[in-house]
Amino acid sequence: MGLDQAKSLFDTFKAAFTAEPCDLAKCEELLGQLKLLLFSGSAVLSGTGSKQEQLLVRETLEHACFLSIRRRDLPAFERHVSQLKMFYDRQQDLPPSEQKYPILGLSLLNLLASDRIGEFHTELELIPVDEAENMYIKQPVQLERYVMEGNYAKVLEGQKDVPKMYYAFLMEKLIECVRHKVGASLERSYENLPAQQAAQMLILADVPALQEYAIKENERKARSENDDPMGDFTPSLTRRAPVGLVKWEVKDGRLHFIRSEQKRMEVPAVDLMVNTIGYATDLERIV
Question: What is the value of pTM for the model shown?
Fold first, then answer.
């Protein structure tokens, strides 16, 4: 590749990325051109490129990670993190990157917010013990403990302590994940409960916010029920075997859980077995 040409294009991309306001579409276009130029040969990816080339590619991929978060494109973020790990593994050959820990922390938080606990622990095992004390790594680890303990108030407090602007979006996603968990627990525990109490438990501002959330939850469940699992009913932490719908309705100052006939006939022992198998499946991934 033409290193001078690539550096010039990277400088243009970086200037666009740091501009206020930032034209994200323009940044994405420049990034595409830059990656095409950088990856046109296999030398960099195979580790045989010059140190200057590898550093330029590493910095490009780091900016690509942050751009993906700003665009809320998590699949692209995960692809860029996967590519970056190759360069982070070559730390003995390259000077340390200041962005390594913020990006690895974002990756852990993304897995946690996606309820991919098995993958979260697998990634954590790959981080050396001394590096796990880094603030960017410690925070998602602490948040994972709060989620596993059901200490959702602490998760909510964690929004105030996010160490970098890019964490805010993933914290929103984590709060949404927590709401799904709390909602599932409420469905199993109540036929109905006071709307104001339910709003507080679901980390919502007020009853109108609860009404809006109930509509979205019903729509989400309807989409989930209509999804075709292609014959695969293997349960997991994030997908249980179809057992009918529980519709949410805010009425007369209370949140009601209206169960379908199929849901009423659900056998608790079967429900327990499904969840146990799901936990065992995810535990296998960790081990």
Answer: 0.79
